[in-house]
Amino acid sequence: MNDLEKDLLNTILNNEPLLNAVRKVFIKRVEQEKPVIGDADNMKLGEKYRAYEQAGEMIKKGFDDLLAYKVEKKPDKGFDKSR
Q1: The model scores a pTM over 0.85
Q2: Is 42 inside any structural domain?
Q3: Is 44 a member of any domain?
């Protein structure tokens, strides 16, 4: 990942409301794919449920990975005229 991409990610990661909105989109998509009982036989239902669980876990891990790119920006003290 190049520096520009890291800077863009850091912009998102340091904006908590934006990050939470993006996370909600992914979680909503996974929840929409939750298998419905009676939708298929037990074998198919089990496969769909495992895929659903795995997708949720992948998204969680993906957001954890994203947070590794977060860099806390130190406040710019600027020029101190008192010295």
Answers
A1: no
A2: yes
A3: yes
